[in-house]
Amino acid sequence: MVSDNKIPRHLFIQQDLLKKIQSGEYAQGQLIPKESELTDIYQVSRPTVRQAIQFLVNDGFLERRKRRGTIVKQQKINQEFTHIIESYDSEMNRKGLHPTTKVLTFKVDKATSEIANNLAINELDAIYKLVRLRYAENKPIVLVTTYLPVKLLPNFLHNDFKHQKLYSVLEKMNLPIVQIRRKLDVLKADETTSDLLDIEEGDPIFYFHSVGYSHDRTPIEYSISKYRGDINSFVFELNHSS
């Protein structure tokens, strides 16, 4: 393969490799051809191939692995919920990703002291416990455990949150989430979390505690979200204080 004479050879190779990554010809997690093979494919020297590969490594598309070679790196999903109140489904759809949800648990339970403090209710008060595993393109992205006060949400169990959006249901019940407070920690995945998110035990996860408030700062939702650290990144938007 010979590049256009107007384009530097390393840049042509870089663009061609990127095109194959984006088209799926070189899939995420797959080894690309060895440097010796690429020199034959593109009819260039090995330093030229290395230069092209290094650009793609620097840009986060490729990753060099010791004793394995160079693989196509898993692209991270930029999560913007740190400054936008938006449902998971809506955000994934906006990014061109197909979201799905598996409901693992949905039942009435009793509030622990932690849940009670965050929902401004009494310990042992009745709460709904909703556990959902959220996917994008059939890959598990985040494990979310949500608690909601029963006294504010009668007849809530009939909702099917495999297909319905929690925030849309709350809005229809005149309890829209208008403000959210979030706390972020970075922890290691335990055995259960690693199994559900399809990662190794001990891998890093982003661990969010969120409290969603309706009008008059009434706490409606307390959620614990565990995001995979390998394929999620988070966008924070800051404004200068006046």
From TrEMBL:
Domain HTH gntR-type span(s) in chain numbering: 7-75
One BP annotation, GO: negative regulation of DNA-templated transcription
Lineage: superkingdom: Bacteria
Gene Ontology MF: a single term: DNA-binding transcription factor activity
Keyword annotations from UniProtKB, A to Z: DNA-binding, Transcription, Transcription regulation
Keyword set includes Transcription regulation: yes
Signal peptide range: none
Entry keyword Transcription: yes
Name of protein: GntR family transcriptional regulator
Protein species of origin: Gilliamella apicola
Lineage: Bacteria, Pseudomonadati, Pseudomonadota, Gammaproteobacteria, Orbales
